[in-house]
């Protein structure tokens, strides 16, 4: 898509006209750079800079980096806010709002000291703006509709121009009907690389944003007014098993950066390593001030980056530690059925509903392996298969795959880890000592839990307590 100068000025309205005569840089903005668009939720190769200072480009999980053009000494980008169809994982798509064909929008990458000019075209059914979270910029470029600029009307294009004063980890999102527009998936990552190519440099640099959606089984559009009870917990609007693995060569210096635009905090946990918080949306953490972690809590509206050296090969689980956030759509009002024998009831229900499957008697792990008929466009609650069986996850879960001998820039999924002999947990086949354990009647009590009647006002029986006192 190209615009003549006449069209551009017409589309941008009087703001840009006035601006063009006031700020010299703007006279160069006579045409709009093409707005690249992405059709797939497939990780695109990192965009290595062809001009300007050298940097190691980031990898956006299931995403891409927005191409730019140089215009004089301005780096020009073009974002289009628009309705999109996003595949959350194979088997489910959602009708969201995003930028340039996907939600989240493309990652913007630039360098400290760059002057950026970002065109924003509004193809949504309502007005919007973009706020550049964490950037130090003139108040009028901050993107808060009504406060620092008029909202961008439907069909219009606005221009943001600012100097990237510092390197770091940032994001962008609307500040216009914000609750709805973010509930619909409008957000994107913004990385500013250091001017000094050697500063805190890593070999692999992954980015993702956390978003939560409430999409009823069988539906396509999120319930935008939901405040707390979401059922799709996403990284870059993807859920496990649809989230790209983070593929890393042994010995690489690795950085993982993330931001949180959901309504709750996410304790992000990685197995197999300890690591240090290296950067927040406020700036770089001095190396001598960083403390070790294995879980980093990321509050709402925060961004965190952590660094590690990938010296421990393997398939390392990487996930939010809130266990409800590693599941796909589920009801949270289901009863606990552990120990309840539902065989008789199931027989009767099957006469009416032939597909009925009783669940939860022994726990809920059977849900990960079962093939239950699901409504259209719905993902299983717990799913994914590994080399040893069902992984029983969903939502905010992926795998960091550290392998020997990967070429630089090779992000292809290497398959499952080949564990060296003698390094996998195994079944004990020798004798097991008969130690005193829960008495058989506890199990029986548990099996008959459906028969226990607690009279109103009476103290519920504490089975564990009873067992301890035996
Ligand atoms: Cu979480």
Task: Explain how this protein is built.
By secondary structure, the protein is mainly beta. It folds into 2 domains: 5-198, Cupredoxins -  blue copper proteins (Immunoglobulin-like); 246-403, Immunoglobulin-like (Sandwich). Helices cover 11% and strands 29% of the residues. The protein has 7 helices and 24 strands. The strands form 5 sheets. Strands 1, 11, 12, 14, 16, 17, 18 and 20 form an 8-stranded mixed β-sheet that branches. Strand 16 and strand 17 (283-284) form a beta hairpin. The termini are far apart. Bound molecules: copper (II) ion. Residues 233, 266, 320, 322, 325, 396 line the site of copper (II) ion.
- Measured by DSSP, the beta-strand proportion falls in 25-35%
Distance between the termini: 78 Å
Mean pLDDT, nearest integer? 86
Number of strands: 24
Shape descriptor reads globular
Q: Which small molecules are bound?
A: copper (II) ion
Radius of gyration from the alpha-carbon trace, in angstroms: 26 Å
Helicity, in percent?
Answer: 10-25%
CATH topology of the largest domain: Immunoglobulin-like
What's this, in brief?
This protein has helices at 5-12, 14-22, 178-183, 343-352, 366-369, 440-447, 463-468; strands at residues 59-60, 69-71, 74-89, 92-99, 108-111, 115-122, 131-133, 157-163, 168-173, 188-193, 204-213, 232-235, 246-249, 253-260, 266-270, 275-280, 283-284, 292-293, 295-298, 303-309, 314-320, 383-386, 389-393, 397-403. With 470 residues, the protein is mainly β. The strands form five sheets. Strands 1, 11, 12, 14, 16, 17, 18 and 20 form an eight-stranded mixed sheet that branches. Strands 2, 3, 4, 6 and 8 form a five-stranded mixed sheet that branches.
């Amino acid at each position: 898509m190209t615009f003549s100068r006449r069209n551009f000025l017409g589309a941008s309205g009087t703001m840009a006209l006035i601006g063009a005569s006031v700020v010299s840089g703007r006279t160069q903005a006579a045409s709009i750079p093409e707005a690249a668009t992405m059709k797939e939720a497939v990780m695109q190769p990192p965009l290595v800079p062809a001009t300007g200072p050298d940097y190691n480009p980031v990898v956006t999980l299931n995403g891409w980096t927005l191409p730019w053009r140089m215009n004089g000494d301005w780096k020009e980008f073009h974002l289009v806010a628009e309705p999109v169809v996003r595949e959350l994982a194979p088997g489910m798509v959602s009708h969201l709002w995003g930028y340039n064909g996907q939600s989240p929008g493309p990652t913007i990458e630039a360098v400290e000291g760059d002057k950026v000019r970002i065109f924003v075209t509004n193809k949504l059914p309502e007005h919007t703006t973009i706020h550049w979270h964490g950037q130090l910029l003139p108040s009028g470029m901050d993107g808060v509709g009504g406060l620092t600029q008029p909202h961008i009307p439907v069909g219009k294009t606005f221009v943001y121009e600012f100097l990237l004063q510092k390197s770091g980890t940032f994001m962008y999102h609307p500040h216009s009907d914000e609750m709805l527009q973010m509930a619909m998936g409008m957000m994107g990552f913004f990385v500013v690389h250091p001017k000094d190519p050697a500063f805190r440099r890593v070999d692999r640099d992954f980015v993702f944003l956390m978003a939560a959606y409430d999409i009823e089984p069988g539906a396509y559009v999120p319930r935008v007014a939901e405040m707390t009870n979401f059922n799709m917990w996403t990284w870059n609007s993807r859920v496990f098993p649809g989230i790209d693995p983070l593929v890393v060569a042994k010995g690489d210096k690795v950085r993982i950066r993330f931001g949180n635009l959901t309504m709750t905090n996410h304790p992000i946990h990685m197995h197999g390593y300890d690591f240090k918080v290296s950067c927040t949306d406020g700036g770089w953490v001095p190396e001598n001030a960083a403390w070790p972690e294995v879980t980093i809590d990321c509050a709402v509206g925060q961004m965190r980056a952590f660094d590690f050296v990938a010296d421990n090969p393997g398939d390392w689980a990487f996930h939010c530690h809130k266990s409800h956030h590693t599941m796909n759509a589920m009801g949270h009002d289901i009863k606990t059925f552990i120990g309840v024998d539902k065989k008789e009831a199931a027989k009767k229900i099957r006469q009416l509903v032939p597909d009925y499957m009783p669940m939860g008697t022994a726990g809920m792990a059977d849900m990960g392996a079962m093939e239950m008929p699901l409504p259209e466009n719905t993902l299983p609650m717990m799913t994914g298969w590994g080399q040893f069986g069902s992984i029983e996850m969903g939502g905010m879960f992926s795998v960091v795959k550290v392998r020997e001998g990967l070429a630089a820039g090779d992000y292809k999924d290497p398959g499952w880890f080949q564990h060296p002999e003698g390094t996998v947990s195994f079944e004990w086949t020798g004798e097991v000592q008969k130690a005193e354990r829960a008495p058989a009647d506890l199990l029986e009590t548990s099996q008959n839990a459906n028969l226990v009647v607690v009279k109103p006002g009476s103290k519920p029986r504490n089975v564990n307590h009873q067992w301890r006192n035996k």
